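Supplementary Methods, section 5.1.

A reviewer requested that the exact input to the structure prediction be made available. We therefore reproduce it here, unchanged from the version used in the analyses.
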Amino acid sequence: MKETINIILAGPRGKMGSEALKLIERTENFQLVGCIDRKHDGKNIKDIDNTSELDAPIYTNSNEAFERLNADVLIELTNPEVGFEHTKQALLNNIRPVVGTSGFSEDQLGELKELSNKQQTGIIIAPNFAIGAVLMMKFSQMAAKYFNNVEIIEKHHDKKLDAPSGTAVKTAQMIKQVRESINQGHPDEKETIEGARGAEFDGFRIHSMRLPGLIAHQEVVFGQSGQTLTIKHDSMDRESFMSGVHFAVEQIIDMDEYVYGLENLME
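The structure derived from this sequence is encoded token-by-token as follows.
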């Protein structure tokens, strides 16, 4: 493992970004070399975050940041539109992205995988960085071998842009890998209000809730004759995601391939 890991952080003013700043500051071998932000070009991160002791310039032009800074890793915590461009640019500059931005399309994920392979530069895209959430997904996949009937209920804060969440989509994909495909519910089922049954995925349903006061929560509910099984995870604070970010940054230094989901790095 590299002794000091030089990091560019995209999205330092966001709620996840502010937690990432704290993570970098308290981690001995993490070094912040720059930030990408849509404001405050030319300022120092200390100019906009009085609580931080970190000393790093802010760039509004991400290409300029990648070309000028000696960075090993990009931590990308913005939004799907600019996050995709940041991630591509990082790969083209042989900087390894750790991406917590959700909402990328299948075509975008495929493009990033192809670019990672071409550049031989590692990338980790994690729909959820909370270790407990990753375990929830793994446990749900285990259960789906024995319970065909399942629904996913995900709950997030009302500022979240994408629905379903990346975590819910990833969970559904993992379940699909092992579940016998069936169309659940009554064959003559009818929604009297459109959307009442949620989004359909491989014959089962995903429900998205958006409310102030929530952070990130998911239940995977399995049903079988005479019994139900619920696997649930709650993040009450965004600090819960930082253990996974830390893990991903340390793992990616020795990687040259594309990885989608932290579960692929956990034994």
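The first strand starts at residue 5 and ends at 10. These observations are discussed further in the main text.
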